[in-house]
Design brief:
Immunoglobulin-like, about 130 residues, alpha+beta, 2 helices, four-stranded antiparallel β-sheet
């Protein structure tokens, strides 16, 4: 009788052993528990009151943080004539980069942040004249 129970017990345990041995591959394969994003996702600069009509701010800066996704992150500046960035890569989640408007009106301009798995989020930058 005992010998018959052993094969049945082994068959019952086999699925549990297989499930337990199926570990995740880390964030690169499983993805991040938080959505891939930048914060803030939109930055708007406005020239101060009293600035000549049609003139936009130069020198304004903003610190941008990267969350979620899979590090490292590549920063692609699609508007380098209007906005400069202090680095082209952020190595860690929660890391940051700084943008600086270099002048010229812009509405909108995009800076793309691309994670290791080629997912893309976009930072929208506006540089407007005084109203």
């Amino acid at each position: 009788m005992q010998l018959r129970k052993l094969p049945m017990t082994l068959w019952a345990l086999a699925p549990m052993v297989l499930l337990a041995s199926c570990g995740g591959g880390g964030d690169e394969e499983a993805g991040s528990p938080t959505a891939f994003s930048v914060s803030p996702s939109t930055v708007t600069f406005t020239a101060p009151t009293g600035t000549a009509a049609g003139v936009c701010l130069a020198g304004g800066t903003s610190l941008i943080f990267v969350y979620g996704g899979t590090a490292p992150y590549r920063i692609d500046n699609t508007v380098p004539d209007y906005v400069s960035i202090d680095k082209t890569e952020v190595s860690d989640r929660g890391g940051s980069f700084t943008i600086t408007v270099v002048g010229g009106c812009l509405s909108p301009g995009n800076i793309n942040v691309v994670d290791k798995l080629d997912h893309v989020v976009t930072l929208t930058v506006n540089n407007k004249p005084a109203s």
